Amino acid sequence: MNNHDCNDCPLANRRNFIGEAARVMSGVMLAAGLWPRSAHGFVIGYGSGTAHRELVVYPIPASDGAMIDRDAQLILVRYQESVFAFARTCPHQNTALRWRENEMRFRCPKHDSRYQPDGRFIDGRATRGMDRFAVSREGGNVVVDTSRLFKEDDDPAGWEAARVDL
Q1: CA dist., res. 117 & res. 127, Å (int)
Q2: Do 51 and 13 belong together in one domain?
Q3: 23-79: per-residue pLDDT in tens?
Q4: Range of the domain at 58
Q5: Which of 12, 34, 47, 153 could form an SS bridge with 29, CB 3.0 to 4.6 Å?
Q6: Which of 41, 27, 65, 63 is nearest to 146 (CA)?
Q7: 144 and 96 in a common domain
Q8: Whether residue 114 is found in the same domain as residue 142
Q9: Same domain as 121, residue 59
């Protein structure tokens, strides 16, 4: 009988075991098509109250452009080898933004504010860039944390870092 210290085992404590079991069940549910979805991505919610987090998982877009997910109220953009996730609304007065494919720009239909694909403000009544969600990369997916929103004027460093470079 081999006598060794189980503290080094990945499943030695309850927290690790539950986390690993949740990952396995998530994979099974995802493969079986039982995972909750937004229109374009998979939704993962956990926690409660003010600590509640909701993650939305999307495949990395194959080419430059924008995808609007109305269910999750966000816009996923691939632009110049980076991926961004934005709040769907204009920071000026919360009007739903529109993607102008022929111009490769966003436009607010209410006051005609315009934004670059990376969310930078071009012109119009708004005074800052589009609000960005925190994003990370997991394999071939982009994970958007909709509980973490960065505003360019409140947190310039956080706003700038809210991207996945490919």
Answers
A1: 17
A2: no
A3: 555 555 555 554 444 545 555 554 444 444 589 999 999 999 999 999 889 999 999
A4: 36-165
A5: 34
A6: 41
A7: yes
A8: yes
A9: yes
